[in-house]
Amino acid sequence: MLRTPRLLAAAALACAAPAAFGSFSYAFFFGHPPEITLMRDAFWDSNTGEMLLTSAEDQVGAMWQESPQRVSPGFLSTFEFRIRQGPAQIDGDGFAFVLQNGFGGPPAIGFGGSGMGYQNIAASLAVEFDTFGCCGEPQTPHVAVHSRGMEANSPSNDAALGVAALGPLGVNILDERPHTGQIQYTGPANGNPGHMEVYIDAVLVLTIPDLDLTDIDGDDITDQGDMYTGFTAATGLADSTHAVTAWSLESDVTGCIEPHAYLSGSGHGGFDSPYQASVQFIGTYPMTFVWSKDGVPLVNGGRIEGQGTDRLYIADITPDDQGLYELLATNACGNQTIPFPLFIGPTCDPDFTCDGNADQDDVACIINVIAGNPGCECQDPDFNRDGNVDQDDVAALINVVAGGNCP
To answer: pLDDT tens digit string along 386-397?
Structure first.
């Protein structure tokens, strides 16, 4: 059926200025930033507004921020990613957030397949999101941190500093939906050891409790505290699309950073369509997220998903779903609330005969029904919903068939 909402779609996208918060922040919806170097099979997809690291089988791709970042004191890397199956419907091989020394510049790319684009990059640390089980690896999908100090990095188990399977944690990164990853490193200070935490959709999935980027197997893998940052990915027989849609990095972090939104968006397609809203925050984790409607917290279940995360999904929206939605993000040092007003204009279906077209046949049909000759219609002849079946319904239908708004 044809469905003509008065407000066919609503969408909002905002990007906060990165100068006050974050060493950099990118929303790739707006284009390919000149500061991002792409390698091999990686490219910016203008149709989807995504950085695609891989998009077919037997590929390897990488993207790097061109300037090294001060990471040894601490950093926060927050990114939105999405993994989609290709025609082969084989998930893999995976992608990684990578820190690397660079030896003079950011261009670096490693082996494909299970190497996920980071294997063989020396003086590096990779946080891998592995989706293809192979060769005695831990259960997939899993997250792991790999480094061999100054030596060439490897996805092998003996290079893993820590690993966590995602299934037992209830985290599914293979559902083809967007997800938020957050990697947080705190360097050693005041006699306390350094450590790293990895979060997916606000769930802590992996902790490396004793980590020092300046002393991995006795090696300082930084360049006087600085490293290049980026992402790599690869496919072999698998053909997953590994996409990054937004990325921020706060470097030289030595304390708590309160939540600050740098990207928000929402949209729907009218009644009976899904409503989605999401916010990307810069800030120290753990961070809690509470969605509310008109001041009342939402509850997961039925048509509602996403409470407790930074993205909300409501299936098959109805007039009762209209109202003011808000997301409250809170961490140890502050909070921020982002509003999302939801208004859904009325919808109507001008295809009165249900033949797949909205045309003069529909107008002729409603005239016949009003004249007392029913049988051609497939819906309520009270087209303008005023409680009467009369010439006003004919006029309303003619207006919509001609491209006007629903009554």
So the answer is: 888 899 888 888
